[in-house]
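Subject: for your reference before the review

Hello V.,

The reviewers asked for a structural picture of the protein, and I figured it would be easier to keep everything in one thread rather than splitting it across files. Below is the amino acid sequence we used in the manuscript, unchanged from the supplementary table.
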Amino acid sequence: LDAVAQEEAQIAVVRYPSARSAHSEGLVKARGLHLAPLWIYRMQLLVSCDHPLVQHAGVTVDDLAPFPEVAHGDLTHIAPPEEHDAAHAAGRVLVYDRAGEFEALRSIAGAYMWVSPMPAGTLAREGLASLPCADAALYRDTAVWKGRQTPEAAAFLEEVRREIASL
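And here is what came back from the structure prediction:
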């Protein structure tokens, strides 16, 4: 948000839980920025194809308790300060790049990761599976920009919307 507000970037895609939309969208508007929703979806579980839950129907958050979570280590949260969770769980493995996340999911027994829906080709290529979770949080991806969109930014957003539609 700061990069867009300071015109270091033309556009940003911001992801936040729908339950926090008033707070998140308030931060955007407080910086004098514009926003447009791109996508609303339920987070999914990303696991190796041999994960014990792959054959389990109706996975719930409680089913995840015995398994280690892989999380992106440098996420910038835009949650209210009281909602930040220090390091969440003892079983959390922090990884800083997508290739490392995929490798951790394949090599750490029972590991899982929360993700937005992913292309089937990526899942197949990486030997991973995406599982729905009945009580997964609802998330939003929102485009954010300052002033008028440039033709390049508008074209980028149109491509993002096409990709989302393909999922």
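For the response letter, the relevant points are probably these. Residues 151-166 form the longest helix (16 residues). Helices lie at 2-5, 21-30, 98-107, 120-126, 151-166.

Happy to draft the paragraph if you're swamped.

O.
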